[in-house]
Amino acid sequence: MADCAHLLLRGTLPTRKQRRDFQREVRGHRLVHEHLIRFFQGFNHDAHPMAILVSVVGALSAFYNDDHDYRDPAKRDLAGMRCVGKMATLAAYSYKTAHGQPIVYPRDDLNLAQNFMYMMFALPTRPYDLDPVACRCLEVILMLHADHEQNASTSTVRIAGSSQANPFACVAAGVASLWGPAHGGANEAVLAMLEEIGTVDRIPKCVARAKSKTDPFRLMGFGHRVYKQMDPRARLMRDMCHKLLDHLKIKDPLLDLAMELEKVALSDDYFISRKLYPNVDFYSGICFRALGIPREMFTVIFAVGRSVGWIAQWIEMAGEEVSRISRPRQMYEGAPERPFVPLSERRREDGDEETDDSRPDSADDLHHLGRMLSVRIANSHGA
């Protein structure tokens, strides 16, 4: 993940020395201010982790308000490193808060994925052993979600950044956009679909329903708006998914169902001819389930990976010689121009009651109101 982040933030794959320096710098930004931790204590025990994350990422603006001068490349880079270093910490604390568990501080001897797993699942009462295959799977997920052209959340970050807002406020805007089920919730929809299918023997019937134009049922996690061949990220995610399941030797009917559905779809002429291949969301949801990560954390982890791309986009935009605020245009198709009608002349509906608001103000009314306010202010000062 360090190489991926270095490439996005600084434009090149790092040398060995640059890699060590980059990792050391990121580790130095993993901790968050102790006062910020108090924010987590104010959320309800059943708060959604995304609701917590969008709040605390925005709150970082209060701690780093003056160090993001757009004209200074060093300060832009510093803001980026802070974001990369702290996002996993904030996401893990959001998980702990939503589950009523004590927070676990990051460790400098672990990489990003290992640290994230440790902060999510470790407890102060017992040791926690990291599974290297599970950590590698999470690292692959984070890398594959790091950046993906001008999607909704990335565009949101750039639009917010075009006003020269604090970079953490821009990233918080991206988190809020990602939260929508049409964007970051696709892998959750995959598991919901698998639960609806239920058992392997119902797959042929559900596939037939998905082919029908009159049936609203759809196979989630298939096809992609950009990729007309198989999503290249999905190939890597599929291989990692199968490796993880073999390694963990999990007996989960839902995971078995997903693997069978994959086989059926990849051999069906209907899906092949329409290039409806399983995409990255199909496999990532399965991996999350195998890792024991609850469904409400799926989009949070998506945000951790994508935050590297968000901040890289922000740095790129902020470094442009000519800075213009984003101003999308729209074509008005509403009612034509209409004359203004005073309230006293508008048609009354049945049930309308005559009130003081229904008559126009006069100069005498305003003068009387002014005298009343003056008396009240004088009396309050005298008291």
From TrEMBL:
Tell me the segments the record calls region Disordered. Answer: 336-365
SUPFAM superfamilies in the cross-refs: Citrate synthase
Catalytic center residues: 224, 281
Q: Which domain of life is it from?
A: Eukaryota
Enzyme's top EC category: transferase
Q: Quote the catalytic activity from the record.
A: oxaloacetate + acetyl-CoA + H2O = citrate + CoA + H(+)
Question: Which family does the similarity line name?
Answer: Belongs to the citrate synthase family.
Q: In which pathway does it act?
A: Carbohydrate metabolism; tricarboxylic acid cycle; isocitrate from oxaloacetate: step 1/2
Q: Which NCBIfam families does the UniProt record give?
A: cit_synth_I, PRK05614.1
Question: Which Gene Ontology BP terms does the record give?
Answer: tricarboxylic acid cycle
PANTHER family in UniProt: CITRATE SYNTHASE
Q: Can you say what this protein is called?
A: Citrate synthase
Give this protein's Gene Ontology molecular function annotations. citrate synthase activity
Q: What's its EC?
A: 2.3.3.16
Q: An example Gene Ontology cellular component term from the record?
A: cytoplasm
| Stored InterPro entries | Citrate_synth-like_lrg_a-sub, Citrate_synth-like_sm_a-sub, Citrate_synthase, Citrate_synthase_AS, Citrate_synthase_bac-typ, Citrate_synthase_sf, Citrate_synthase_typ-I
Keyword terms, alphabetized: Transferase, Tricarboxylic acid cycle
